[in-house]
Amino acid sequence: MAPAKSSKFGDLPLSTVGPLDCALTGTALLTSPTFNKGSAFTQTERRDFKLTGLLPANEQTLDHQAERAYQQYLTRSDNLAKNTFLTSLKDQNEVLYFKLLLNHLKEMFSVVYTPTEGDAIQNYSRLFRRPEGCFLDINHPERVESDLALWGTPDDVDYICVTDGEEILGIGDQGVGGILISGAKLTLASLCAGVHPSRTLPVVIDCGTDNEELLNDELYLGLCQRRVRGKQYDDFIQTFVDAARKLFPRAYIHFEDFGLRNARRLLELYRPTMACFNDDVQGTGCVTLAAIIAALHASGQKLGDIRMVVFGAGSAGVGIADQVRDAIATEMKIDHEEASQHIWLIDKPGLLTSKHEVSDAQKIYAKDASEWKDDGNDLLSVVKQVKPNILVGTSTVPGAFTEEIIKAMHENSSRPIIFPLSNPTRLHEAKPEDLLKWTNGKALVATGSPFDPVTGPWGEDGKDITIDIAECNNSVVFPGIGLGCILSRAKLLTDRMLVAAVEGVASLSPVLKDPTAPLLPDVEEVRAVSVQVAKSVIQAAVEEGMATEKNIPSNDHDLEEWIKEQMWNPEYRPLKLVKMEGATRAAKGELGKAMPGL
């Protein structure tokens, strides 16, 4: 459900009320996905924009069109075909595309994003019809600025999502096909948080690929060479960042699906100088922390009470640890070193200690080896010694959370917080029904994939109750963070702003009102959640002196209205005919599109 609009802030540059200037007429208008309304053009618009004779006579509503599109969608034979249908619809009519998705968000989410988008990316070169986004060739750094400049003026782009395609959605190196993940993330930003779709820019940095199947495919569209690494790679990323900052100085930059060796390194390199974000490093940590905070509230605990074991110390596991550590440090007013003592990481060698070779990111969590016996660093032994109240799984080891381990945890924690987050479902560390059975319904559970509610005899006098299972879906958090940075024109995205975003999500947790409800809001509530997240981010940005936008409302009610007024909604707006001569890029339908010939 789209947030209600207010005319109080109707004069804002990103306001979505009132008519749109449009310089296109006739078939040019009908082929513009930004302005096209198809059968929903009014009779007056048909006359003024020279559309009579180009459309059937019956004037229909957006709801009629969405129903027709849904019926067509249902005829597609499989999810990949449905994904392709939606892509085609987006190319024809942007408003209708997003309206259809919002009407059937829960049903279509896995089709427009993971896992089906992964199938589309793997088949990118075979399904290719038309390019969408900016393709940067690592062999030509001299072209980066001019290639990016095709996408508009400094005021035309708010949100850039960039990938190098090395680690896509758990399916690995997909080379140039990574452009689709940049596009998918931006679709979610518009769908879930109302980021104006015409003001977003998907980018892929084509560095080559180490995927043998792609290298041997004569239809592959990217550079047919091994991935470039080292200094040439780093220099190219710097060239991209410098050009993007020069051309679009107010744009927020989202790094997506970079490889393990680059994701955190690049984020830490650029965070101190610009507002940027990495969903793999920060997003998973943020949404997991939101679920943890909600679970702590539900169990009457505080951040300072946390004793967390993370099973699987890759980018996701360490990212979660970092967000929890930062929240503890902020809440307790202690440094990161002290806050990290609340967290234990287990990876393939067992508990990470000072005797292990660990990455820079893992180092702060490594425990003193002298405190642990060589045979006492497996998960069960660690649980028995640490007595954690939180257990998080990002290991992709199915069934790793055994009954013995969970019961050992439950002995020292009346309401254990247990999150088996590995994807896909077959790789989960445990099933929610088992976790609840082994703890007599006391476990507070969130998962990395959707699971059905679980029913068991855990109510008063052994009555059956049904407990809903939360899904730690990043889309509950990252779109609102992006919206908050865009609207505040934040100079940086700080730790405090991320913690504020997490608190915004946690404050809307259904479990706070109903102990059988999930720990996180449902994806169908995501636009309302994004308002709260954006509000929290903006308030933190103002407090920290990171906001550069003028006249941001200071009270909660006005700030929410200010945010809602600038959130794009899939609704047809009246069109106002303007002359092509002197028309803006927006009036020509050119925002979000490259400008050939520059």
Topology at a glance:
Layout: E1 20-22, H1 26-30, H2 43-48, H3 62-74, H4 79-92, H5 94-103, H6 105-112, H7 116-122, H8 124-127, E2 134-137, H9 144-149, E3 159-163, H10 179-193, E4 200-206, H11 212-215, H12 231-247, E5 252-255, H13 260-270, E6 276-278, H14 279-298, E7 308-311, H15 315-332, H16 336-339, E8 343-347, E9 350-351, H17 360-363, H18 379-386, E10 390-393, H19 403-412, E11 417-420, H20 432-438, E12 444-447, E13 454-456, E14 465-467, E15 470-471, H21 478-488, H22 495-506, H23 526-543, H24 556-565, E16 575-577
Parallel strand pairs: 1-16, 2-4, 3-4, 3-5, 5-6, 7-8, 7-10, 10-11, 11-12, 12-15
Antiparallel strand pairs: 8-9, 13-14
Helix pairs in contact: 3-5, 4-5, 4-7, 7-10, 10-21, 14-15, 14-22, 15-22, 18-19, 21-23, 22-23, 23-24
How would you describe what is shown here?
The active site is at 113 (proton donor), 185 (proton acceptor). One of its GO terms (biological process) is amino acid metabolic process. A divalent metal cation binds at residues 256-257, 280. It catalyses: oxaloacetate + H(+) = pyruvate + CO2; (S)-malate + NAD(+) = pyruvate + CO2 + NADH. This is Malic enzyme. By secondary structure, the protein is of the alpha/beta class. It folds into three domains: 7-114, Up-down Bundle (Hemocyanin, N-terminal domain); 118-274, Rossmann fold, CATH 3.40.50; 282-472, NAD(P)-binding Rossmann-like Domain (Rossmann fold). Helices cover 40% and strands 10% of the residues. The strands form four sheets. Strands 9-8-7-10-11-12-15 form a seven-stranded mixed β-sheet, with helices on both faces. A five-stranded parallel β-sheet has the order 2-4-3-5-6. α10 links the parallel β3 (159-163) and β4. α4 packs across α7 (116-122), α14 (279-298) crosses α15 and α21 crosses α23. It is globular and about 80 Å long. The mean pLDDT is 93.
